[in-house]
Amino acid sequence: MTVTLRGLRTAVPPTVLIQEQVRDVFAAQPGLSRLAQRIVPTSFNVSGIETRHTVIEELTFDEVDGDREFFDPATGELLMPGTKVRNELYIREATKLYVEAGRLALDALDDVAASDVTHVITVSCTGFYAPGPDYMLVRELGLDLAVQRFHLGFMGCYATMPALRLAKQLVQADADAVVLVVTAELCTLHLRSSNDPDTIVASSLFADGAGAGIVSNRMPAPGELAFGLDRFETVITPVGEADMAWKIGDNGFEMILSTYVPHIIDEHIESAIAPLLAPEPALLADPAGAVAHWAIHPGGRSILDKVESKLALSEAQLVPARETLRDYGNMSSATIAFVLRNILDGTTAPGDRVLAMAFGPGLTVETGLLTVLEG
User: Fold this and answer.
1) Which of 149, 182, 246, 267 has the greatest number of beta carbons closer than 10 A?
2) Rounded CA gap, 244 and 49, in Å?
């Protein structure tokens, strides 16, 4: 049985952040140490990001309706709302993105109706509420009220990979299963001014977005490009537990993203992808040559640089990841959907292999092998 990922679509909130402008705001915050004053412009300038999207409409010097809770344009100061304020905004705005991305995925396929969906898998690590996004998708998209629902929460940037793996397993267990997978992340809710280098780096990278797709055994329609989901693997690196972490604080969620992460990836990336490639010796012998497309989660420019160098990938093979980083930033778990969509929109041929890879707390490396399909 071939399990397919079809109708892959993405969504972002309308407010656009220009990286240079955001840099200047963060650099002008009161209370920055001398070290932080040097780190802020450097982190933003070398991020590889030009634009990002946010659900926080008040992150502007223009007039906005309502009270300001995140940004005071009169002083240029970033405010520090509590976790409740941030999560209330998550509940309202994440729901919109989940529904938008899910509807786009369903509307993209003529042979899949809302009534066909048997399972819903939602993914997020940037907020919580119950009834949650899985429930809201059922209500807002008109899905069957008996649809089976799963939510993968607080796993971090790699979480879409286990979501797709779970979806594949559901289809393998039930040939009639049609699984709607939706991930939405509102990372900018938790950005803040700080003297901590890890927090500064996170503030220069993270953004908001959503992605969705349909996993089933239904093959693509004539002229439609899709992915076959071949297999997935998980590897925990021997070190890195303290270098990438995600915790809940009084003023939002707190990201630990140390500058040591690219070094960890450089040291362990080859062994991390070996279990995925091992069933096909030709792929294991020459990954860069045998795998045409690399859907690498752009956790940051330095991470992409390390992967490209260590695996001897070409510049062209990193284009989808680098373009996603440039235009959208790091949207945590949602980002891999944007990279995969970029690959489908580029130059692909049926039978091309795709290696998808994402990194997260642990340090955990999630990988998936896909094949481009055409109806």
Assistant:
1) 182
2) 21
Whether residue 320 contacts residue 342, with contact meaning beta carbons closer than 8 Å, is answered with: yes
First to last CA, the chain: 16
Which of 248, 206, 202 minimizes the C-alpha distance to 86?
Answer: 248
Tokens of 268: 């362990």
Distance of CA 212 to the CA centre of its chain: 11
Active site residues: 157
Using DSSP, state whether 63 is helix, strand or coil. coil
Nearest to 106 by CA among 138, 79, 67: 138
Kindly provide the residue ranges of all beta strands, DSSP E only, lying in the chain, ordered along the sequence: 4-11, 15-18, 51-54, 71-72, 77-78, 119-124, 148-153, 179-186, 208-216, 225-236, 244-249, 252-257, 293-296, 353-360, 364-374
Alpha helices in 77-196 (DSSP H): 83-107, 133-141, 160-173
Pairing of strands 353-360, 293-296: parallel
Q: By the 8 A CB rule, do 197 and 259 touch?
A: yes
What pLDDT does 265 receive? 87
